[in-house]
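User: For my dataset I need records formatted as: sequence, then structure tokens, nothing else. Please produce one.
Assistant:
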Amino acid sequence: MTVRYDPDGVYAVLADLDAPCYIVRNGDRIGATAEPPVAGGPLTLLAVAGPMPSTQLGESGFRGRHGVAHSYLAGSMATGIASEELVAALARAGFLASYGAAGLPPERVERALTRLAREIPGLPHAANLIHTPHAPRLERAVVDLYLKHRLRCVEASAFVQLTPDLVRYRVAGLRPGPGGGTYAENRLIAKVSRAEVAELFLRPAPEPMVRALFDRGEVTAEQVTLARLVPMADDLTVEADSAGHTDRRPLITALPAMLRLRDRIARELGPAAAPVRVGAAGGIGTPEAALAAFSLGAAYVVTGSVNQACLEAGTSPAVKALLAAAGPADYAMAPAADMFEGGAEVQVLRSGSLFAGRARRLHDLYRAHAGLDELPAPDRRRLEAKVFRRPLSEVWRETADYLAEHHPEQLLRAEFDPRHRMALVFRWYLGQSSRWAVAGAAERAGDYQVWCGPAMGAFNDWAAGSVLADPGRRRVADVARHLLHGAAYHRRLTQLRFSGVRIPAACASYRLPSAPSAVPVAP
């Protein structure tokens, strides 16, 4: 038997998560070993922790339903930032990832679906469906593509109500189960932050909406019947303090409340309804944060911000460098482009960009004035010189040309509503700022809109001095592996602490390698 007493040796035993760990005393020395002490020998057993591989974190139901090795989802970062390369890399490593289809035209989404089917045939992956109340035809076109390409998992985000096309995706995949009941071929992961929205996904699809789909020939009579027995979602992601659109709710209050809601509705529906798993998103940037989510009852964890700085992310090297340098407080709330008039906000990176302040100023001007013609001359000159860098009349002509082709009803409204026209011009800046960031437009570096939350700063602090500190060596599968392996390591430490073991300071944190190295991963 080998007993390790030195800090590095003890850490090595603790970190071998595929083997058990025994904490023993030998005289006045306390050590660790992977072998049980012999009865009657010189060693006194103080505590034991069984094998704790990262593949045991979360719920096995999530892993089985999605065909992955880990209870982990890389969430869909819009405009293809969660790229085909990112999705494929994680799929090959046994993780689920969602392609960032939001904000992309249907033809670009179709190219991504075709590429993923070619490069990772048979491997689980998902794509995003974002609620677009201002452009329902776009939502319908994307669902058409998902059904055409037999995409079997969709991550739905920003929905405040169910829409016919979201319900169509779910119900069109229903069929009788092999042993009775209902099987949903089209899996749905819904991202929510409010209880009233969560309840829509925890219950079956509204029967009038399903009946209307049947009347249009979009689902079968059998599927109408089966839809009464299946909740809208397989999985419900509780979004806490995250990047982009966020209510900035603390996970420690949001997740338990959503679990109680899930359990209450499950009791109402009865045992015939399939259980909905609840996962956690927002702030997952360190092993300790991932473990906290699992300890609160999360079936799976979702990452976002930390993936954006990885090599496979579909954004520019300039943005990745900014993200890799971000600290714990380098974030701000700014007006959202898609819901500018209503005052909705998104969380963005503040360090290295003037976007948040400039976007807030645009919203202040929008609230204070009835149209572009009423802007004070000094404000208009400042906007044209510093923010838009071109005459506002020119911005409006470009915006009007786009609307005429894609959203003629918006153009008609703007012709009669000067304030709406002003909002559309201001939204031009908000929309372009994210595109400049993705493209790495050097001349607009001060205007980059980078959706980001505090998980990024926490990750950078944890990764300092390691192989993951350099964005040029930061691979998305390595990030996922180390986050979960580290969470499993800290789970072992927690169990030992609850047994009364004092963990030496040198072993109290999971250690990232300073050079590339393999992390145990289930096949």
